[in-house]
């Protein structure tokens, strides 16, 4: 059966075409909802980040202006250039500068250190709010780099980055005169506000990274997360990015990444928000997206099981029943399915097969009656033919005034006619058929004295087998009429009968092979034999094509055998090597009881 043309295939395709737009719409809605959440969260987080960065940048810009104004408005810093290093006035001026720096630190909330560096005397004055040693180390570490920006035309960023052992910082240095330099230091951790991004949960956070991707501030992010963020720094020009982190033996974890580059230094403010925590208010949509393919498969399988029980299974049962009926099994009866429509179809099928079965029996019985009538009609075709020949023989003997022969002829003819009264039967025994042939040949011997002889040789135990009446006579008669032409030589007819072992037959049992015993009857003579043209026609079975011609006897016997036995029986014709014709008849060896059962 062509699966593409089946109802099962059409149902699957139809259900898929109906469900596919619904699933696509649901999938689109879920993806759209998640994108809306991403947009809203990224917008909120970006607003916080922009606000924080702008605040930081504003403080750094104000600090720049403050540092540039020291050389013009601070008299103590100006006076140091004219005072002797180490003098009392020099020390008092430095103390006043220290007090001023400590006071100004309070006004600039991000700045935790101001310093003044005497390049000629290599003296560093540092005012800081805490961790003096760490801040002093960072300032001393940055001074060589900061001093280079005032040599030649090398342009440095507004604020330099100093990487320490325990922490990093931003440093800004300005040149007041040939001797003194002033500057400010900002701890990187003071620029980072991870607490603003409450959506990040325990697995997200904020961090400041340099252009090389190395973290500059402390962060709740792991080293792998910072490395992941650093790999996507070029995408910060977008409003946000969705990036993935590979988890060993687990599903990849997704993050919403956003950030801003700093205008005051070579660094970037970066925020990572885990989607798992960000979407915690949308668990249904996340699960729906993951379960959409599974849900579609479950719905499709459920629908197929339901339709299979309701439609496909009864239809397959009906198709199997039709196939059995097509093979000739008319006793098929189907159980009615639960649905009323298919129950009507099934009952109609059962009714139809029952009617066909009865109709076939009626047709078969009618065929038997027709074949019986035809068989009797064919059988009657032979009797008048022989009667006419017998009358011709009696007429010839009477003309010759051979009264004794006429008496013998009349006796044999009476026995022959007595047999004919029983020839209306469907079958007769072989010994009865042979006795009938003997009477016929005795009549022919009276016609041709000393010119005709015969022999009947039938194996013992074969006489009880049956055959259609007058099966042998047409061939014996034809042998005398057509073979007995050389009247100067004695004409001999030999009739033999023998059985054979079982042979295979597949035509009598619906194609199943069955072993059938066969009976062979042979009519031989020493006459002129068949001419080649006639022999060719007989061997090709053309004797059955002309029921009205001169070989009506042969056609009659062949047709009766075919009607009764089918292809199991047959005729064979050939000429003997030393002259004469041979006809072989083979039929199933059946007793009268077996023939009646068949």
From TrEMBL:
Kindly give the membrane topology term recorded for this protein.
Multi-pass membrane protein
Q: What is its EC number?
A: 2.7.13.3
Q: Which residues are in the HAMP domain?
A: 309-361
Query: What main location does UniProt list?
Result: membrane
Q: What parts of the sequence cross the membrane?
A: 7-28, 288-307
| Gene Ontology MF, one | protein histidine kinase activity
Q: Where in the cell is it found?
A: Cell membrane
**Keyword terms of this UniProt record:** Cell membrane, Kinase, Membrane, Phosphoprotein, Transferase, Transmembrane, Transmembrane helix
List the protein's name.
Answer: Two-component system sensor histidine kinase YesM
């Amino acid at each position: 059966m062509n699966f593409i043309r089946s109802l099962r295939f059409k149902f699957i395709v139809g259900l898929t075409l109906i469900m596919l737009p619904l699933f696509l719409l649901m999938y689109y809605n879920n993806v759209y909802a998640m994108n809306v959440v991403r947009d809203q969260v990224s917008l909120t987080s970006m607003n916080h980040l922009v606000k924080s960065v702008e605040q930081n940048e504003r403080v750094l810009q104000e600090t720049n202006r403050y540092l540039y104004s020291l050389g013009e408005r601070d008299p103590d810093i100006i006076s140091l250039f004219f005072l002797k290093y180490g003098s009392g006035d020099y020390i008092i001026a430095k103390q006043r500068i220290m007090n001023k720096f400590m006071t100004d630190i309070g006004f600039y909330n991000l700045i935790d250190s101001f310093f003044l560096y005497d390049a000629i005397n290599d003296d560093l004055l540092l005012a800081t709010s805490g961790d003096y040693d760490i801040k002093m180390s960072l300032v001393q570490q940055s001074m060589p780099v900061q001093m280079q920006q005032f040599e030649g035309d090398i342009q440095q960023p507004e604020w330099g980055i100093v990487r320490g052992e325990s922490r990093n910082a931003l440093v800004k240095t300005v040149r007041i005169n040939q001797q003194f330099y002033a500057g400010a230091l900002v701890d990187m951790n003071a620029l980072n506000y991870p607490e603003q991004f409450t959506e990040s949960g325990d697995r997200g956070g904020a961090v400041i990274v340099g252009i090389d991707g190395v973290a500059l501030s402390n962060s709740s992010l792991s080293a792998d997360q910072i490395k992941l963020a650093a790999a996507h720094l070029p995408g910060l020009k977008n409003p946000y990015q969705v990036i993935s982190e590979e988890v060993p033996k687990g599903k990849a974890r997704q993050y919403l990444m956003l950030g801003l580059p700093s205008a005051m230094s070579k660094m970037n403010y970066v925020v990572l928000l885990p989607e798992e925590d960000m979407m915690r208010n949308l668990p249904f949509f996340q699960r729906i997206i993951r379960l959409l393919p599974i849900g579609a498969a479950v719905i499709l399988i459920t629908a197929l099981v339901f339709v299979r029980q309701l439609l496909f299974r009864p239809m397959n049962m009906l198709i199997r029943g039709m196939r059995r009926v097509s093979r000739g099994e008319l006793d098929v009866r189907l159980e009615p399915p639960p649905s009323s429509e298919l129950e009507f179809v099934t009952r109609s099928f059962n009714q139809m097969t029952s009617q066909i079965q009865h109709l076939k029996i009626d047709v078969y019985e009618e065929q038997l009656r027709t074949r019986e009538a035809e068989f009797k009609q064919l059988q009657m075709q032979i009797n008048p033919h022989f009667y006419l020949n017998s009358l011709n023989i009696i007429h010839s003997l009477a003309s010759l005034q051979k009264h004794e022969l006429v008496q013998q002829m009349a006796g044999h003819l009476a026995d022959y006619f007595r047999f004919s009264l029983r020839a209306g039967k469907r079958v007769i025994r072989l010994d009865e058929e042979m006795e009938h042939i003997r009477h016929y040949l005795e009549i022919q011997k009276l016609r041709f004295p000393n010119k005709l002889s015969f022999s009947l040789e039938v194996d013992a135990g074969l006489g009880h087998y049956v055959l259609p009446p007058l099966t042998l006579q047409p061939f014996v008669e034809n042998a005398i009429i057509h073979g007995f032409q050389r009247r100067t030589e004695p004409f001999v007819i030999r009739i033999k009968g023998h059985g054979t072992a079982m042979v295979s037959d597949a035509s009598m049992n619906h194609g199943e092979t069955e072993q059938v015993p066969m009976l062979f009857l042979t009519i031989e003579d020493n006459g002129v034999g068949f001419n080649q043209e006639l022999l060719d026609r007989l061997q090709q079975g053309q004797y059955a094509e002309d029921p009205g011609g001169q070989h009506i006897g042969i056609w009659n016997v062949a047709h009766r055998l075919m009607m009764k036995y089918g292809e199991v029986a047959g005729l064979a014709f050939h000429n003997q090597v030393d002259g004469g014709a041979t006809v072989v008849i083979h039929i199933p060896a059946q007793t009268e009881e077996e023939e009646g059962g068949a």
